[in-house]
UniProtKB/TrEMBL annotation, chain A:
<dbReference type="InterPro" id="IPR028082">
    <property type="entry name" value="Peripla_BP_I"/>
</dbReference>
<protein>
    <submittedName>
        <fullName>Urea ABC transporter substrate-binding protein</fullName>
    </submittedName>
</protein>
<dbReference type="InterPro" id="IPR017777">
    <property type="entry name" value="ABC_urea-bd_UrtA"/>
</dbReference>
<dbReference type="Pfam" id="PF13433">
    <property type="entry name" value="Peripla_BP_5"/>
</dbReference>
TrEMBL record, chain B:
<keyword id="KW-1003">Cell membrane</keyword>
<feature type="transmembrane region" description="Helical">
    <location>
        <begin position="123"/>
        <end position="146"/>
    </location>
</feature>
<dbReference type="InterPro" id="IPR043428">
    <property type="entry name" value="LivM-like"/>
</dbReference>
<feature type="transmembrane region" description="Helical">
    <location>
        <begin position="289"/>
        <end position="313"/>
    </location>
</feature>
<feature type="transmembrane region" description="Helical">
    <location>
        <begin position="153"/>
        <end position="172"/>
    </location>
</feature>
<dbReference type="GO" id="GO:0005886">
    <property type="term" value="C:plasma membrane"/>
</dbReference>
<feature type="transmembrane region" description="Helical">
    <location>
        <begin position="45"/>
        <end position="63"/>
    </location>
</feature>
<dbReference type="InterPro" id="IPR001851">
    <property type="entry name" value="ABC_transp_permease"/>
</dbReference>
<keyword id="KW-0812">Transmembrane</keyword>
Length: 426, 422
């Protein structure tokens, strides 16, 4: 429309054209000054080039959002993620930021309440125009914010291992989806420990149920047997009846996906019922207890249990040693680092790499640039973003120690491909 | 005739109060806030429906319900079920193993739509379910409780238990209800995109209008004999019973009405926020809703709206400003309000602002209003049928301040509830 007017104006050489060209020179003059000064004083690409969609990017800063629960029942789990994300942002800023811009963050509290997550994510995207959001922990909070991110085209870096069955163009999943955590772990316990029978146990919501469904399918594919499967509400503290059933059925493996505060009761009651996990009769394999949860459970109560994760604080590699040191220097020497905390730490780094590859903060360009991004400095080792927005990562099995740490007893040879919609496991 | 009923319906000062609220809600807020903030206010207003119901039920009827979240949730879920079915057409759910059913059912290995979801495909059914289902549920609870003369603290505890049971039920049946996640990702209402900015503005106005209808209905009830019986029942239940009233029926009525208001609020919430989850059904949100009502003043219909807006606005602002300490600020706010004004913001208004008001619009109108009121109510009782003769014993004295004083000795709070002079 505009171009047409302009052309018709120029053909007729009407007063309109003269006025327009006058306005043009008037605008061009200061604009040229700004451009000249920006190329002189900064080597950074101009903001108008790297930010075409009105995000909160200035010539020397870029604003991102951190959205976790720092109050309420989930605060204990999510605090580690907040700390990891702040650490990563500090480190990136110390290295000169992203495209020459320092990262500033706006932190919002999801308050362990899913509608609050939705409200705050909308605030971050609509009001603050943040360039990326690092946040959410539970699946419920992710489900609540997902429509917001898709509607306003934001980018969320989600750190938690979760049930899969999702692949949003507006989320990068830096934790494992269910098959990455489960299949290699069960293969290991079958091969190394000769397990034949399994008892599946979990908290009653979508992640444990979906995970156990995948575990059951895989166990049955291997020609082995599931002898029991039970779920308890979140926050449940009476596990005596299931412990009695376990004693009766004598499975080789208790496959436990108990979540949050229930863990404390569960492991204490197991021990009180005379099941000594260090004897491995039955053996306990979990995918829900990280070093963070052991702080609450107590190392002496869970000693001898196995966990299948992608990261343990005790991983012995230079990346991890540097990470653990930096984390302790910033947040205190007594702190422990769990699987999700490490995955949260990857978020800002993966975003930085995507922005630099795209040469832009635009969400659409970051999305296009993300698949194939690799990080060689990740504490867990090498990771790469898959086409489906999840990470290729290794599966590791750790043995819980009395001091609350895991000893790594197994590590998959190859990176395991993320497969959020596993055919044959649904 | 019309003139007279208007006067009886609300006092001049109350008319001003409603007009002021209307100006604030319909003009000042929409004009001064961007769509994001407007949508937040719209969300707060949906809680005001619950607070309004609580004013009637608790403030006037003396029935403290700690389970209003149940009705809010039921209304919200009915709306969400309709919207979810619309969002789950076979085309947009084709990646599922069973296309055409809501996504969470597919995740839980359910392969066909449960029969009780089926009617929610029809909007008229869904809309009537929003109103009727929670009301029916409240009716059942009401009959079971009030006919057996369960009241006071026991009733509060039982409603709280119902809220807990409801949450566990919804979370436990996640294949049918969406579990902890709730019903998410709602997109359109009969093809109209409810997520767009224009839809948010329209829904805000719809929500405000619905709130006004509920407010006026409450105001109407309050000024009718029914409202006076409620107050009498709250203050001296036995006397009302001995006067020949079936107290239980009045309690059931007001409880059902507050449930219906909550359910409408819940449905408006789902429309404006775009999802529904069990976090609105449980004990904590139900108690929170009582707090909105208490902060506003449990005897003031308008106070409930202002209280809800204030508490939620403070919650948003505090948590944005101090993400790690905001709960302390909220706690301080509640303590301060309860300590300084036990009857909420409305009492603040009554004590400090109201006495100055007559100076604004000349004292004579106030006196006139009061005299009309009195003649009016006496006419009313004189003109009644023989059947209602017995009612006079209660209805007549309550319209006079002195008599209320004897019924409910030395309490400012009760006087405020019982006296309708301006």
């Amino acid at each position: 429309m505009c171009i047409f007017n302009y052309e018709s104006g120029s053909r007729d050489n009407s007063p309109v054209f003269k006025r327009r060209s006058f306005i043009k020179t008037l605008i061009a003059f200061p604009l040229g000054l700004i451009l000249a000064s920006s190329t002189l004083s900064w080597a950074n690409p101009p903001t108008s080039e790297v930010n075409t969609t009105g995000l909160a990017v200035t010539d020397d800063t870029v604003t991102v959002g951190i959205l976790h629960s720092v109050t309420g029942t989930m605060a204990i789990s999510e605090t580690g993620s907040v700390q990891a994300e702040k650490l990563a942002i500090d480190q990136i800023n110390a290295m000169g930021g992203v495209l020459g811009r320092k990262i500033e963050y706006i932190q919002e509290d999801g308050a362990s309440d899913w509608p609050t997550f939705a409200e705050k994510s909308k605030k971050l995207l609509v009001n603050d125009k943040v360039a990326a959001v690092f946040g959410c922990w539970t699946s419920a909070s992710r489900k609540a914010v997902l429509p917001v991110f898709e509607q306003y085209n934001g980018m969320l870096y989600y750190p938690t291992f979760y049930e899969g069955l999702e692949q949003s163009p507006n989320v990068i999943y830096t934790g494992q989806e269910a098959t990455q955590q489960i299949i290699a772990g069960i293969d290991w316990v079958v091969k190394e420990k000769g397990a034949k029978t399994f008892y599946l146990l979990g908290s009653d919501y979508i992640w444990p149920r979906t995970s156990n469904k995948i575990a059951r399918k895989h166990i049955e594919k291997l020609g082995l047997k599931v002898v029991g499967e039970e779920y308890y509400p979140l926050g449940h503290t009476q596990f005596n009846s299931v412990i009695n059933k376990i004693k009766l059925k004598k499975p080789d493996v208790i496959y436990a996906i108990v979540v949050g505060g229930s863990n404390v009761a569960f492991y204490k009651q197991l021990k009180a019922a005379g099941i000594d996990l260090t004897k491995e009769k039955p053996l306990l394999l979990t995918i829900s207890v990280t070093e963070d949860e052991i702080l609450g459970i107590g190392g002496e109560n869970i000693e001898g249990a196995y966990a299948a994760m992608k990261y343990f604080q005790s991983l012995d590699n230079p990346n991890n040693q540097a990470f653990v040191q930096a984390f302790k220097d910033k947040w205190g020497q007594d702190i422990v680092i769990g699987d999700v905390t490490q995955a949260a730490y990857l978020g800002p780094w993966l975003w930085k790499a995507a922005v630099e590859k795209a040469g832009s903060f635009d969400i659409d360009k970051i999305r296009a640039a993300s698949p194939g991004i690799e990080l060689t400095t990740a504490p867990e080792g090498y990771v790469r973003i898959h086409e489906n927005h999840h990470l290729w990562s290794k599966t590791r099995v750790g043995l819980a120690q009395k001091d609350g740490q895991y000893k790594v007893v197994y590590e998959s040879e190859e990176l395991i491909e993320p497969n959020p919609f596993p055919v044959g496991y649904q | 005739m019309r003139q007279r009923s208007n006067i009886r319906f609300m006092s001049r000062q109350e008319v001003l109060g409603y007009v002021l609220l209307a100006v604030i809600l319909l003009a000042i807020i929409p004009l001064s806030l961007d769509v994001f903030r407007l949508n937040l206010i719209g969300k707060y207003l949906t809680y005001a429906f619950v607070a309004l119901g609580l004013v009637l039920c608790w403030g006037y009827g003396g029935i403290l319900s700690l389970g209003q979240g149940v009705f809010f949730g039921l209304g919200g879920y009915c709306m969400a079920m309709f919207l979810k079915l619309e969002a789950s057409d076979p085309e947009s759910t084709k990646i599922q193993s069973t296309p055409g059913i809501p996504d969470f059912m597919d995740w839980n290995q359910i392969t066909e739509l449960p029969w009780w979801w089926e009617p929610f495909r029809q909007l008229p059914f869904a809309l009537s379910a929003i109103v009727l289902l929670p009301t029916l549920f409240a009716f059942i609870i009401g009959v079971a409780m009030f006919k057996l003369r369960v009241g006071g603290v026991y009733f509060a505890i039982i409603t709280q238990a119902i809220a807990a049971i409801m949450t566990i039920l919804i979370i436990g049946q996640q294949g049918y209800t969406g579990g902890v996640n709730g019903i998410t990702d709602l997109r359109t209402l009969l093809g109209w995109d409810i997520r767009s900015d224009s839809a948010k503005v329209i829904l805000y106005y719809v929500c405000s209008a619905a709130l006004f209808i509920c407010l006026l209905l409450s105001q109407f009830i309050r000024y009718k004999k029914l409202g006076r019986i409620l107050v009498a029942m709250r203050d001296r239940e036995d006397r009302v019973r001995f006067s020949g009233y079936d107290v239980a029926n009045f309690k059931i009525f007001v409880f059902c009405l507050s449930a219906m208001f909550s359910a409408i609020g819940g449905a408006m919430f789902t429309l404006q926020v775009g999802f529904m989850s069990p976090s609105f059904v449980g004990i904590v949100p139900s108690i929170e809703m009582v707090i909105y009502c208490a902060v506003g003043g449990r005897l003031s219909l308008l106070g409930a709206v202002y209280g809800t807006l204030l508490v939620n606005w403070a919650k948003t602002i505090f948590s944005e400003t101090f993400p790690e300490l905001w709960l302390f600020a909220m706690g301080a706010l509640f303590i301060a309000v309860v300590m300084a004004f036990p009857n909420g913001l409305a009492s603040l208004f009554k004590r400090y602002i109201e006495p100055k008001l007559p100076a604004w619009y000349s004292g004579k109108t106030a006196g006139l209003g009061a005299s009309i009121m009195r003649t009016d109510s006496s006419k009313e009782t004189v003109g009644k049928e023989a059947l209602e003769e017995k009612n006079r014993v209660v209805s007549k004295p309550i319209s006079k301040p002195e008599t209320v004083g004897t019924m409910a000795p030395s309490s400012d709070e009760k006087l405020e509830g019982g006296v309708y002079v301006d």
